[in-house]
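Feature request, filed as a ticket because there's no other form

It would be nice if the structure record came with a short human-readable summary line next to the tokens. Right now we just get the raw output. Example of a typical job, pasted below so the devs can see what we mean:
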Amino acid sequence: YRDDKGIRIEAYDIAHMAGKDMVGVMVVFRGSELEKSSYRKFTIKGFEGSNDPRALKEVLERRFAHSEWTMPDLIVVDGSTAQKNVALQTLLSHKKTIPVVGVVKDEKHRPVRIIGPKKLIDEHKSAILHANAESHRFAITFHTQKRNKSFLA
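Raw output as currently delivered:
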């Protein structure tokens, strides 16, 4: 699905504190614009503990249960090969062929490389990095809200 605004990128991130109050988010970047009305928040319900790839799988399963939501042209995951592979396996199980890139970070959470289809990375590098940074910001904000709510409860 393309329109005059360019490709639709969905970026996903998981946030938690040692497995507590685990959440996932989806942000949408179309062309050079953030599409905030399409952002989604997910509270991880399927398990306890710290397992980012498993949490990402749950988020993607729940996202692709919504066939009424516009499908992306590209999926960006925060993480390395494990997260990228989980995304590809989940897409396969839903009979979707959407390219996936992973943004690999250093210990200070700065991007060090992008893994995935080279042509797409070369074409959309700045949008990929922007979408990834926005998903991280949104995930941290949502997690903080959830943690504060738990703390007050």
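Something like this underneath would help us a lot:
The helical segments are 52-64, 81-93, 118-152.
The two ends are 43 Å apart (CA to CA).
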